[in-house]
Amino acid sequence: MKAKSVYICSECGYEALKWLGKCPSCGRWNTIDEVTSYAKGAANIPKVRTEDIKSINQIKTEDEVRYKTGIGELDRVLGGGIVKGSLILVGGDPGIGKSTLLLQLCRSSGRKILYVSGEESEIQIKLRAERLGVNSENLYIVSETEVSKTEAYIAAAKPEIVIIDSIQTMHSDEVSSAAGSVSQVREATNIFMRIAKESSAAMFIVGHVTKEGAIAGPRILEHMVDCVLYFEGDRNMSFRILRAVKNRFGSTNEIGVFDMNTTGLTEVENPSAVLLEGRSTDISGNTVICAMEGSRGVLAEVQSLVTKTSFGNPRRMGSGVDPGRLILLIAVLEKRINLKLSYCDVYVNVAGGMKIDEPAADLGICMSIFGGMNDVCMPPDMIFIGEVGLGGEIRGVTRLEKRLSEAYKMGFSRAVVPAMSMKGINIPEGMKVKGIKNLKEAISCVV
Q1: Alpha-carbon span 292 to 400, nearest angstrom
Q2: Which residues in the chain show pLDDT less than 70?
Q3: Phi-psi region for residue 434, left (φ > 0), alpha (ψ -120 to 50) or beta?
Q4: Is 400 exposed, middle or buried (0-12, 13-18, 19+ CB in 10 A)?
Q5: How far is residue 389's CA from residue 421's CA, in Å, rounded to a whole number?
Q6: 316-351 tens-digit pLDDT
Q7: Whether 427 contacts 413, CB under 8 Å
Q8: Fewest C-beta in 10 Å: which of 46, 76, 198, 410?
């Protein structure tokens, strides 16, 4: 086999035939690493049997292709449970709770689990397990960073679930580069993927993230695995969100909600109640929206503070909302309803650390800014749902009936929604729903 050198960007996975100081794809400097590959000749093509090629109707699925983790929110995100032989990547900021969640999985799943740690000693894992109340006879721990030895441990233990913490610490002797490099991460993941498919053991791989929030290492890593889970949340707050950004065996829109406390992560079955806890109804600039996260509607409080600027250029800052979308909505408010925001600082916050990125929250954000500008308190039993266009028109949203049902369950008796989305929906009995076409009609509902 002939050796061939390829140069790959460690940030985005861009491949080049020669070394470059700056990556043409992501624009980063000094991220191009050399990777040696071996090309096989035509004479080395292996022989295969034709009987190994099967019709899809000949393939039989097992009676139990999934099994429950014992953590309802994790099962929801995974699409109903862990699929045998799947490779699952779990990413998140340091200290967000990745290892805590996986250790609690060891306590509740009831399956034979091998926990391979490359960052902590066995004693350190034992101390953390005692704090979390994890005392399972089916949990086995080994501290190892060499891939071939890890493969041998998996073959000897024959576990149903394997946890690798983390992939950046694993290294193979067949690759000359340091642990955590592009070639090492890719080689280790390839080996673990093969082990998962051959042994039918589900494998959880913990991945570090960069300062931008992306999984550290080559972008190809996310394409190789079956499922990518991101753990989100502010480390200074107790609220945690587990989000699936890729899932070959379920929906990519589902989220799991947890509360971090001294005993670990606790499931939050009703996120709306947690997000609206302590809501102030007599303060201007506060509105309530309903965002769809997977199959569930989540109510969140949007807070706005509008003050006269002390600087040459007014500030626009948002926490939990897309900054670009916020600037766009401010421009629409100023142009379409003549709201004088050119000389004001605008601060928008989604309470509870929730991140809202769907257009259906536009109307709630606009009404929050309007209330903050004019010191108008919104009715405490009213919710706002709708997408705002550049002309100030209110566009339709999906699953309006589900949103209204969630709002009614949480005690909201009035809703302002797009008129075009009200056709053919069942409105909860006793709830008043006002269909509007533009921002001016929305403002007339509160003043």
Answers
A1: 10
A2: 1-4, 36-45, 62-64, 210-220, 235-236
A3: beta
A4: buried
A5: 15
A6: 999 999 999 999 999 999 999 999 999 999 999 998
A7: no
A8: 46
